[in-house]
UniProtKB/TrEMBL annotation:
One Pfam family linked to the record: AHSA1
CDD domains named in the record: SRPBCC_CalC_Aha1-like_6 (cd08899)
Entry's family note: Belongs to the AHA1 family.
Name the UniProt record assigns to this protein: SRPBCC family protein
Species this protein is from: Streptomyces johnsoniae
Length: 212
C-alpha cells in the first residue's frame, strides 16, 4: 500500500481555466517526473500496443486529423502532434453528445537530463456547474491519477496488475481516497472554500471506490 501512496505524492496537481472550442473550460493538470528518457515515454504514450498496457486498447487512425477509440472509454480526433514533445486530442465520452461535451486532452513531455522526463497531462472541459459543484475536479483528475499510476508501473517494466479492478482492493481504495483529497487541496488552491472542496473530494472518493 505504501508504494501506491508514494505514487500519490509524486504527482503535482493544478486546477485552472482556459478556452477550448466548446467554450470556457475547467482544466485539471497533472505533472510528474519519470526516470525514463523522453523517447521511451513518448513511445508509451503513442504506440497502440503500449497504450493498451496502461490506459486501454486503442484503435483508429492515429495521425493528425485521424480519429481514435479507446476500448470501453473515450473517442476523439488527433488535433495536434509534435513528436516527441506534445500531443493533443479531442475527448468525447458517451453517446448523444453536444459540442459542449467535447473536451481536450494535451500531453507535454520535457526532457530532464538525458534519462528522465517531466510528463504533463492537461484535460480541459466545459463543466456542468451542478456536476462540478458535487464532485469538483477530482471527477476528472482521479481517473487520470489511475492512468499515471499505470504508466509509472509500465515504464518501470512491471505493468500494474488487475488495473480495472484495482479500486476494489484495500490498497486501490486507499489510492483513490488519497488522490481525491489531493484534488480537494488543488480545488482549494484554485479558490474553492475548504467546505466545498472537502465535500466534493469525499463525493468523488465514494463514487470511484465505494465502501463495501
Amino acid at each position: 500500500m505504501s508504494d501506491f501512496i508514494d505514487h500519490v505524492h509524486a504527482v503535482h496537481r493544478e486546477v485552472g481555466r482556459r478556452a477550448i472550442p466548446a467554450g470556457d473550460g475547467v482544466t485539471v493538470l497533472l505533472r510528474r517526473r519519470f526516470d525514463s528518457p523522453v523517447a521511451d515515454v513518448w513511445d508509451a504514450c503513442t504506440r497502440p500496443e503500449r497504450l493498451a498496457r496502461w490506459v486501454a486498447p486503442v484503435s483508429g487512425d492515429l495521425r493528425v486529423g485521424g480519429s481514435y477509440q479507446l476500448e470501453g472509454n473515450a473517442r476523439g480526433e488527433v488535433l495536434h502532434c509534435e513528436p516527441p514533445r506534445l500531443i493533443r486530442v479531442s475527448w468525447v465520452y458517451g453517446e448523444d453528445v453536444t459540442e459542449r461535451d467535447i473536451s481536450e486532452v494535451t500531453v507535454r513531455l520535457t526532457p530532464d537530463g538525458d534519462d528522465a522526463t517531466v510528463f504533463e497531462l492537461e484535460h480541459a472541459a466545459v463543466d456542468d456547474p451542478e456536476f462540478f459543484d458535487r464532485y469538483g475536479p477530482g471527477a476528472t483528475g482521479v481517473g487520470w491519477d489511475g492512468a499515471l499510476l499505470g504508466l509509472a508501473f509500465h515504464l518501470a517494466g512491471t505493468d500494474l496488475a488487475d488495473r480495472d479492478t484495482l479500486h476494489t482492493t484495500e490498497a486501490g481504495r486507499a489510492f483513490v481516497v488519497r488522490t481525491s483529497r489531493e484534488w480537494g487541496a488543488a480545488h482549494r488552491a484554485a479558490g474553492a472554500s475548504a467546505e466545498d472542496a472537502d465535500r466534493a473530494a469525499a463525493a468523488t472518493a465514494a463514487f470511484f471506490a465505494p465502501e463495501s
